[in-house]
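Action item from last week, closing it out:
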Amino acid sequence: MLEQLYRGMTELDVPASDMILEKHRRNQEIFARYMSGERAVDLAREFGISVRRVNRLVRRYHDRG
């Protein structure tokens, strides 16, 4: 049954745990650059994410202190 469900899908070249670490580092960089004065729209364009996502990341990291 699983073979039918996942037919044609390939395994990731990078373990999911490594991808999480990459995103965490990316998010920290976005937060730091935003706090240094860069605009959310510019960060979103550079990192290929939405302005809404940038704002959510900033809010989350700001709340964590």
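Closing note: The chain is about 70% helix and 0% strand.
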